[in-house]
Write a structure and sequence with these properties.
heterodimer, A: about 625 residues, mainly alpha, Cytochrome C Oxidase, Chain A, two-stranded antiparallel ribbon, 19 helices, globular, B: about 260 residues, alpha+beta, Immunoglobulin-like, 2 domains, 6-stranded mixed sheet, 5-stranded mixed sheet, 5 helices, 11 strands
Chain lengths: ~625, ~260
């Protein structure tokens, strides 16, 4: 028993969670007692005796599970455990439930955890669509409904789309650049363990007085500053998810900049690496803004700081400026890694070099720069200074240019290729080109102020965000999962089930989100449990299509679980790709490479006679090592 | 390496793009997407939408035709394990698909700007109204007429200037038939925000004002009746309304910005 409480693990995590929670609770009660206040403050924006433990208990959990052991020992001068690779790599399923410093283990932990929240968020969406199938309120009351769409979006954005990309990159990226691991493996582990904390905090809001947070994922003040207790759980959950993102992004930046294999200059990096470099630049600079603004809301709620209380000199609209200064770059944080995945998949399955590789990389950086200058297009009708609208409209429309470059370059990659459609990942990548183009077009329309004035805050917006986040991000996530499934699990998945999953998802997606444009333009606002009877027909159709979309994901779940356990063994390079991760076994050895490989050319040298991307250790270095490289050499 | 564009039936591809653009535009221009038009802004915004439908159809057609053609022409034969042609790019083509979209979006921005200017042009004789939102109802102060009401009555072809006020949280004013929307923000009027807009209703009838900014549990049903009527009917209606109390939000709007 004593060992269980001194060794890192779940028993100690449980113990420390309780101790830290009790400490937070006691601290609040004690301070209130000696201040002569009522012990329990139960205004709906208050409850310090619950909010403070909601901060301390997760920290206790992170310490207990073992994220800090090495650092604490080192900082206190105690002997550190010799390079603790006892926690590196996994030999049984139990190792995935512990702090582990192997990027491959962490990648799987990320992907499985985030998909858990994807399914929870999806179920919540199904409940919303059940309610919306008919006008009037049948299944949930408006208060519950507001909680449903708020938690749906928070889970999908903060603990699914953003971190699942970090998970995929965690697994693939170090292999791709020929590195033995990430630059900071312990920080990497901490990044992962903060994620379930964030998701659990979001979900815990359902069981506290007042119910789940219900001010939307945008949490606009002053609705959020006056909302029931659940809102504080949103504020705190965002802190953990945000800290996780920032730490991971720093890790990626250092890994990409300093740990590339010899010979891999910037122009020899696969586009997935470029994409994660760009994304990480966005995350480190933008995410502190949402962390800050959620703290401001929390302080307004608990400490009456009045940042956003107009009656006390606060400025209501500044919330939206700070929030969108993060949350617009966030849509690219949720899209750029997907661009990287699609580039890998399309190049591999059309057996062709990426068309215009350098422009593709530069387009990513162009998006990074431009995305900081467009946030106010979310606020064209918010009542901000009107002069800010036109400049933001111009930058917003200009960002379509680098995005268009990427679409055309993927299409250019297909031309003169040998296109294989047997892989589900390729189907999702091509489907993505169609659905993301539609989402991009509606995005340009929304960027135009007069059109935005009419459709802002209507179902047109709901349609647009789902075309870019589902038709965009989620399609690329599926493409990535199918593409690297053999590498990650060492097994092949079932292509037939994959195709069923793809076509049902595509049909369900179009059936759900296309008509939302129409009812939005015609006058249906978003975030309503009840609506005018004239929209009943389309809403019923949307609900039915959404249930198909939901059911299709069960096919995916079945395919993944069964194939992981029983699928045929995967060869090391089933897609005959050129990048480094495919040159090692499936799954890769515990430290990735016995000896670091040497990169000698571009990553997509399909069809170039004699060209190679990499020379693996053990391969005869007598092999021709061409100095020429298709990419990088003058074309 | 130069791509062998010569091998491509460029004329036929271009023709397919044009045909698809025309067909898509034609079909998508038939429905009246935004519903009834009841303000002078509505036809201008709808015209902008129509132009965007044609432009978007063109862009979407390019993508679909290129994608379909590539899949039809270069689908790998069963058993063919070879590679495609090692084409790494084409500088001229890449410059083209950077500059042409830039020109298109700049045109869209310029056109939007002119439409925005037109719909925001203020008439000298506009009638001021203060729209006040609070959970979960609207009321409207008429400073010139000295009345207040829970219905929004306006005169056909008479421009109104609506000042937005919120007493608790954010709300938003939307009459879909007018195509106009603006948030109501709690705070000192005019202090740091741009809280009024103009609109000229040009069609008599009864409409509905919809709150479009999430404001709490009553958000979905926070609506107010809107009546557009003749000057005579409006004058008659004004006489039946309550007088404006001295300390109303409209009076507060007289306070100079801080």
């Amino acid at each position: 028993m004593r060992a269980a409480l001194t060794q890192p693990g779940w028993w100690r995590a449980l113990f420390f969670t309780v101790i830290a929670g009790a400490f937070g609770f006691g601290l609040v009660i004690g301070l209130r007692a000696i201040s002569g206040l009522d012990l329990f403050q139960t205004e709906q924006t208050g409850y310090p005796h619950i909010v403070v433990p909601a901060i301390t208990a997760p920290l206790g959990f992170l310490v207990g599970i073992g994220c800090f052991d090495y650092w604490f020992r080192w900082a206190s001068g105690a002997p550190t455990q010799p390079e603790d690779h006892s926690w590196h790599g996994a030999t049984s399923w139990k190792d995935y439930f512990q702090v582990n410093t192997d990027h491959k283990v962490i990648g799987i932990q990320y992907i499985v955890t985030t998909f858990f929240f994807f399914f929870v968020g999806g179920l919540i969406a199904m409940m919303m669509r059940a309610e919306l199938a008919q006008p009037g309120t049948q299944i949930v009351d408006p208060a519950t409904f507001n909680g449903l769409f708020s938690t749906h979006a928070a889970l999908m954005i903060f603990v699914f789309v953003i971190p699942v990309f970090a998970g995929i990159a965690n697994y693939v990226l170090p292999l791709m650049i020929g590195a033995p691991d990430m630059a900071f493996p312990r920080l990497n582990a901490l990044s992962f363990w903060m994620l379930p904390v964030a998701g659990v905090l979001f979900l815990c809001s359902y069981i506290v007085p007042g119910g789940a947070f219900d001010a939307g994922w945008t949490g606009y003040a002053p609705l959020s500053t006056g909302a029931p207790l659940g809102q504080s759980f949103f504020n705190l959950g965002v802190q953990f998810a945000g800290a996780s993102s920032v730490a991971t992004a720093l890790n990626f930046l250092v890994t990409i900049i300093t740990m590339r294999a010899p010979g891999m200059n910037f122009w020899r990096m696969p586009l997935l690496v470029w994409a994660n470099l760009s994304t990480s630049l966005l995350v480190v600079a933008a995410t502190p803004f949402i962390a800050g603004v959620q703290f401001m809301v929390l302080f307004d709620r608990l400490l009456h700081t009045n940042f956003f209380q107009a009656a006390y000199g606060g400025d209501v609209i500044s919330y939206q400026h700070i929030f969108w200064f993060y949350s617009h770059p966030a849509v690219y944080i949720m899209m750029l890694p997907g661009f990287g995945i699609v580039s890998e998949v399309i190049s591999t399955h059309s057996r062709k070099p990426i068309f215009g590789y350098r422009l593709m990389a530069l387009a990513l950086l162009g998006i990074v720069v431009l995305s900081y200058s467009v946030w106010a297009h979310h606020m064209f009708v918010a009542g901000m200074f009107s002069w800010l609208r036109v400049p933001m409209m111009i930058t917003t429309l200009l960002i379509a240019v680098p995005t268009g470059i990427k679409i055309f370059s993927w299409l250019g990659t297909l031309f003169y290729g040998k296109i294989h459609l047997k892989s589900t990942s390729m189907l999702f990548a091509l489907g993505f080109i169609v659905t993301f183009t539609i989402g991009g077009i509606s995005g340009v329309m929304l960027g135009m102020i007069p059109l935005d004035i009419h459709v802002s805050d209507t179902y047109f917006i709901v349609a647009h965000i789902h075309f870019v986040l589902f038709g965009g991000s989620v399609f690329t996530i599926f493409a990535g999962i199918y593409h690297w499934f053999p590498k990650i699990t060492g097994r092949m998945y079932d292509e037939k089930l994959g195709r069923i999953h793809f076509y049902l998802t595509l049909a369900g997606m179009l059936g759900t989100f296309v008509p939302m444009h129409w009812i939005g333009m015609e006058g249906m606002p978003r975030r309503v449990a009840d609506y005018a009877a004239e929209f009943g027909g389309w809403n019923l159709e949307i609900s039915i299509a959404s249930f198909i979309l939901g059911a299709a994901q069960l096919v995916f779940l079945y395919n993944m679980i069964v194939s992981w356990r029983f699928g045929p063994k995967a060869p090391s390079n089933p897609w005959r790709a050129k990048t480094i991760e495919w040159q090692v076994s499936s799954p890769p050895p515990i430290f990735n490479f016995d000896e670091i490989p040497r990169v000698v050319g571009g990553p997509y040298e399909y069809g170039v006679p004699g060209a190679r991307h990499v020379i693996m250790p053990g391969e005869s270095s007598e092999l021709r090592e061409p100095e020429r490289s298709g990419v990088g050499a003058p074309t | 390496m130069a791509p062998r564009m010569k091998g491509l039936p460029l004329a036929r591809i271009f023709a397919a793009i044009v045909v698809l653009t025309v067909v898509m535009s034609f079909i998508m221009l038939i429905p009246n997407w935004d519903g009834e038009q009841a303000s002078t802004a509505a036809p201008k915004i709808d015209e902008l939408l129509d132009v965007m439908i044609v432009l978007s159809s063109f862009v979407f057609s390019i993508v679909m035709v290129m994608l379909t053609y590539a899949l039809w022409r270069w689908r790998a034969k069963p058993g063919d394990e070879g590679d495609g042609e090692p084409i790494h790019g084409n500088t001229r083509l890449e410059i083209a698909w950077t500059t042409i979209p830039t020109v298109i979006v700049l045109f869209a921005a310029a056109y939007s700007w002119t439409v925005l200017d037109k719909i925001e042009t203020e008439d000298a004789d506009r009638m001021p109204i203060t729209a006040i939102g609070q959970q979960y109802e609207w009321h409207f102060d008429y400073p010139d007429q000295g009345v207040t009401s829970e219905e929004l009555h306006v005169v056909t072809d008479q421009q109104i200037e609506v000042s937005m006020r919120a007493l608790d949280v954010l709300h938003s004013f939307w009459v879909p038939e007018w195509r106009i929307k603006r948030d109501a923000v709690p705070g000192a009027p005019g202090a740091s925000i741009d809280d009024d807009f103009v609109v000229t209703p040009d069609k008599a009838g009864a409409f509905s004002l919809i709150c479009t900014e999430l404001c709490g549990i009553g958000h979905a049903t926070m609506r107010a009746p809107v009546v557009v009527e003749s000057q005579a009917e409006f004058n008659k209606w004004v006489r039946t309304q309550d007088p404006l109390p001295k300390d109303s939000a409209a009076a507060a709007s007289e306070v100079a910005p801080q």
